From TrEMBL:
One family name in Pfam for this protein: TPR_19
Protein name: peptidylprolyl isomerase
Keywords for this protein: Isomerase, Repeat, Rotamase, TPR repeat
Entry GO CC: cytoplasm
Record carries keyword Isomerase: yes
GO biological process, one term: piRNA processing
Reaction catalysed by this enzyme: [protein]-peptidylproline (omega=180) = [protein]-peptidylproline (omega=0)
Highest taxon of the lineage: Eukaryota
EC number: 5.2.1.8
GO molecular function ontology, one term from the record: peptidyl-prolyl cis-trans isomerase activity
InterPro entries referenced in this protein's UniProt entry, alphabetically: FKBP6/shu, PPIase_dom_sf, PPIase_FKBP_dom, TPR-like_helical_dom_sf, TPR_rpt
Species for this entry: Kryptolebias marmoratus (Mangrove killifish)
Family: Belongs to the FKBP6 family.
Length: 217
């Protein structure tokens, strides 16, 4: 079947639920009609073949093939992430980053295509590290994304999330204010900014309290 194809399969009882059926939904000795549609699939064979090559061989392959492999790895990672298999997702994203890093660009347009492919991987890695409760690593990958696109809202938001986890509220606020300037009506950004402001205000009051207390002593 091809991607997007819709098919019907009629199975005789011996290839379906047999003489027992599946009461109360499927009677005994029933022929079963299945309707199947292939929404999407990932070509792992292409990935395996590419990874089996040496770096020298990989650099002789067209960039378009590398980008297909990277996209497949990213999609694998996304599926793992959606299943809360964060370590597996991280491995897929990092594998894709490594393949892109091994590529020797032959021109400026090719270099830009590689950087464009790296951006979502760094963003995904940053979010994955946040799920794994590793804010320092999350911050590292978010900053790598900002090196590619300094005004990227998602990267600024990831930095804000990481700084919040690190209790660096001023830095978190700075990143989130920059993100808010790009997307002033984004609910996630605004909610996190309020949360950071609340924590920062509480910390400032605590500092002020202890400062006064020590002055009195």
């Amino acid at each position: 079947m091809k991607r997007g194809e819709f098919s019907r399969f009629l199975f005789q009882p011996q290839y379906a639920y047999g003489d027992m059926g599946c009461p109360p939904f499927i009677p005994a000795a029933a022929a079963v009609l299945y309707e199947v549609q292939v929404l999407d699939y990932l070509d792992s064979a292409q990935v395996d073949d590419f990874i089996a090559m040496s770096e020298e061989e990989q650099n002789t392959i067209p960039l378009s093939t590398l980008l297909e492999v990277v996209n497949t790895l990213r999609n694998f990672g996304n599926r793992c992430f959606n299943q809360s298999r964060y370590e597996n997702a991280k491995d897929r994203y990092k594998q894709a980053i490594t393949l892109l890093g091994n590529r020797e660009p032959q021109s400026k347009p090719e270099r830009e295509k590689i950087r464009t492919a790296q951006l979502p991987l760094y963003l995904n890695l940053s979010l994955t590290e946040l799920r794994l409760e590793s804010p320092h690593k999350a911050l590292k990958y978010a900053n790598k994304a900002l090196e590619i696109d300094s005004a990227n809202t998602k990267a600024l938001f990831r930095c804000g999330q990481a700084y919040l986890e690190l209790c660096e509220y001023e830095s978190a606020q700075g990143c989130l204010v920059s993100a808010q300037a790009k997307k002033p009506f984004d609910r996630d950004i605004n909610n996190l900014l309020k949360k950071v402001a609340c924590y920062k205000d509480s910390m400032d009051k605590e500092k002020d309290f202890y400062s006064k207390m020590f002055r009195e002593l």
